[in-house]
Amino acid sequence: MAERSFAKEVKKLKQGEGETFSGEGILAITKALLENGVGYVGGYQGSPISHLMDVLADARETLDDLGVHFESSASEATATAMLAASVHYPIRGAVTFKSVVGTNVASDALSNLASGGVTGGALVIVGEDYGEGSSIMQERTYAFAMKSQVWMMDPRPNLPSIVKTVGDAFELSEASNTPVLLQVGIRSCHVHGHFTASDNKRPPMTVADALENPARRLDRIVLPPATYLHEQEKLTKRLPAAQKFVLERGINERFGDRSGRIGLIVQGGSYNTVVRALNRLDLADIYGDTQIDMLVLNCVYPLVDDQILDFCEGKDAVLVVEEGQPNYIEQQIGHLLYKAGRTVKLEGKGKLPMGGEYTGQVMVDGLAAFLRAHAPDLMPVRKTATNEEPVAIPDLSQVLPARPPGFCTGCPERPIFAATKLVEEELGAHHISSDIGCHLFSIMPPFDLGATTMGYGLGPASASALRSKDGKGRRSISFVGDGGFWHNGLTSSIGNAVFNKSDNVIIIVDNYYAAATGGQDILSSRADNPTRQTQHSIVDAVKGMGVKWVRHIDRTYDVTKVRDTLTEALTTEEGGPKVIVASSECMLNRQRREKPQLAKAAKEGKRVVRPRFGVDEDVCTGDHACMRLSGCPSLSVRDTGDPLRDDPVAYIDQTCVGCGNCGEVADAAVLCPSFYQAEIVTNPTAREKRRASRTRRIIAWLQGRREAKRAAFA
Amino acid sequence: MNMQAQPIVARRSPGPDGEKIITLAALAVGGQGGGVLTNWIVAVAEANGYRAQSTSVAGVAQRTGATIYYVEMCRDTGRMPVFALSPSIGDVDILIASELMEGGRAIMRGFVTPGRTTMIASTHRIAAVSEKIAPGDGRASSPEVSEAMGVAADHVVAFDMERVAKEAGSVISPSLLGALAGSGALPFPRDSYEAVIRASGRGVEASLRAFGAAYDIAAGTCPAPVSDLPEDVALPALRVPEALRADWAALQARVAALPAPMQDMALSGLQKVVDYQDIAYGGQYLDMVEQIAALDHSPYSAGIAAAKYCARALCYDDLLRVADIKTRPTRLSRVGTEVSVKDDQVLMLTEYFHPRFEEFTSTMPARLGAWLQSRKGLERLYARRFDKGRRIRTDSLRGFLMLWMVSALRPARRRLLRHRSEMAHVDAWFATVLRLMPHDPALAAEVLANYRLIKGYSDTHARGLSKFARVMGAVVMLEGREDGADWMRRLRTAALDDVKGEKLDGALATVRSFAT
User: In this protein, which residues make up the domain named Pyruvate/ketoisovalerate oxidoreductase catalytic (chain B) (predicted)?
Assistant: First the structure.
């Protein structure tokens, strides 16, 4: 993390026995790791778990004191492979990433890790990016747990439960020699709450200790015949051990009246939503006290057969509240009940929606439907029908403008896509494949560029099939960010293009950080990072991969240059992939760094120049062509008050950072001369001041002469 | 997705001691400081002996999307309530919207419930990209949203909180907090809010000012700021030097002689034209307006359109115009306020120009310009040597004089190639209007308004011209039809709506279909 300090959070990590920790869920997990004597931590940043990585990256001193090793892994696969340190050594390790995408990348390492099993507790904290606010495809991580036979925890979404679960997960992992996935949803990660801290623990064995005493057990290595034994071991030893642990330690919780005729089986993560729904149906108070019999699964895999059967004993109907699809848990339970010859009515999907987040109203409706069918006596009469006069609220769907996320004010990626738009105006439309990262916003208005996105670092790879027969035809354009490039784009996209003699054009968007995930440093970051090795040139890496045609643009705001370079790439006779590295610093992080510095300099009386753009509204004709090539938040429209004008004109508000895009675009696209760049000089030199006032006097004199002779607006 | 026809409207039931959970959702546009606001609210609640929990969907670093922050709080009775993690349809007690359309979005998503929800919304607008990129006016209708608020909410506190914040030298989050406190929707005293702001430590004084101002407005002890509508903006008056007063008076007299409904627009038009060129040009303008007035009758819609669009047509955008505007005495001061320059600071100004062969030659005397344009060789040379962006520093004497020279050509404008081509275009258009006036004044009015399509510079201007031409092509098909004017208006709207003109193609196809 270059431009942001997490000192405040780091301080929280140092809290000791009895202190009250208050903060976000994901930070609570970070603290819990240290309290449970974790020996090493790794991961790959991404919403909603970025915070864990960011804070630990700033907590070097604390970690060193404890002898804990922390690494910013190159990818989720790297992170998971790192857990190999817990295979032979009794060291607790934890890694974290965004899921399901991260788990997809990690699954190779995860399978291997799961097969051999672990000695030290191995924890994978997956930020389940599902439901509203998610930025990825809607899938469940659960399938990975089933196929690899690793366990999955899904704690109730309050800080004490989440923190307790971290400890339980480590023990479960050790008790069953199996890695454990700790699943936390977006809102669990961002929920603000409190818990009572305990002291951080030094790991009994550090990774350094392990290196000094190497260990190796052939039967833990994933190679036939051991692999066959591993499979048996999973079924005969590890699974029973896990189920025993879950049962004996009371990992899953029981609420309500056990004698109830109906029951709910709930994923821990959904508990709060269920209780709120019950409360709204007058079946629970605000503290969760209820008559409804509930089995809350803080461990969602494996299920404990006896526990399920026992819960269903003597019930007429049971509802499984399971978010997302397929409904793995419901299927397992159904299978279980059928085999045991039970007649209890099993409900789940159907009463509740097949897919989508189980939000408040969805839960109310689902539970109500279940109760109506199986326990109408429990449904308060006044709840059984809409109990309020529906008021006709005007439909605004036609009025409201969508507000998708887009490029920030002054974003250096905006001019790249403005230039691409201009190129397409010249050479026609091209197939454009996008990648993961901020640059993906090119698919939104005003740019509307990009046809597919196939995964991190896979932009160019996803265009590899599309090529002209003889290399003479049209070429595809693909984008990849610096984050994706280092994650696996270098081999999967660039190497692949070189090896297969692709003629396509690849644009690497280099903004000095993994920007979309919060501005973490990466190999090519320009900042000097005390704990990381930065300053590695993407251009050199690309050349090293064997690309011959490489162009480096070190100021993306030069729209004309970007346009001409891209045109050359699309038209040159030269064979092989054409790679353009477009570099300019992420404006968000640049502002974080420069603003305080400039403010300080200005205070000290140093000469400081603040650039800003503006529009001469008499010159602007209200066509908004500039905005169709920008979409900058600070460039907007407003009325002039001139009765002769019908359309609002452009104006630039106070948030402008003077990046230059407006002027460059107006220039490259030959739009209009209404933009001006104003540079405000604080603490100007005496000479500067004299010159300025002299010029002003002369200009004023000239203007005075003309004004005297003409009729003009004052 | 609901499993039944109508969703159940289910209210929360209170705890044993009558303690209630209060739910609060804040919809903000990324970067508006919604996080700060939520932290303040939680702190206030906890300071007042409440338990509180907040969640947000912060997403990634990008800042322009819509974000939801959610807070639940409950009087502390020693037990931790089970708080929900996201707002639920029909179950939000307080809804804060930091921008008008976000308020509308909250209503559309069911977070604002009659008889329950207190809605606190800032009425200012942050235009979404889709609103900005329309070639005409693509902005969403604010009144509809304000109306919906009145219907959907139990209690509405709505005013321009962004402006209140600005006037206090702060950002919107404290004024949102002030509106919340002032609304009385939460059972917490004013000073407990202010204490929290003080504790936050950064920009405290400004924040407290913004908070206080918003509090008083929400509490009804102070009036809300009236947003200055465009109509209220004072138009600049024409300053006429002694020597020209008589001629100017004569023109004013001609305006006074026009039918009353036309006079305001005609005067605005006249001022614009005179300011653009000179007194004589104003006379030329009035000649046109008077011709239409003579053929029109009450309510003089064609006459008013003429007063408006003839001025627009005569004041075409050329290099001289741009140079003139950028070298006027009023300009520097306007820029100064626009970018807020203090007295002890120095302002440097860079203008972006990109004159192409067309602009260059059309700024030549008509015959010379035409000759130059016929020389393809010269055009290639220009493209190679001179066709590039030019940055001119108008705060330096050298740069200023460059523009000054160009603007000095104004008296000679009538002799330039550009003027000749513009006037040819205007005459053709005006002739059509005159031809239509006697038998179809309504259509004539629409044809006059078509000049709205011509705007911008270089490519934009060319695109405008072609749209104009295509729309005008429909005149022959629409003439004498009952709905002719109506269709002409639709064609123009279609042309304004999209850049590529696909909507226009569609509209024209329809017209052809019934015209043939």
Answer: 30-216
